[in-house]
Amino acid sequence: MKTLLSILISMCAIFIFSPAQAEHKGMTIHEMHAMMRLMDSALCEALEGANLQMFGQMGESGKVDKDLIERGTNMVKEGKATILNILAGTDMKTIHKEGDYNQKVMLNLHALGDRMLHVIEEVEKLHGEALKQMDGK
Question: From its phi and psi, is residue 62 left (phi > 0), alpha (psi between -120 and 50) or beta?
Answer without folding.
Answer: left
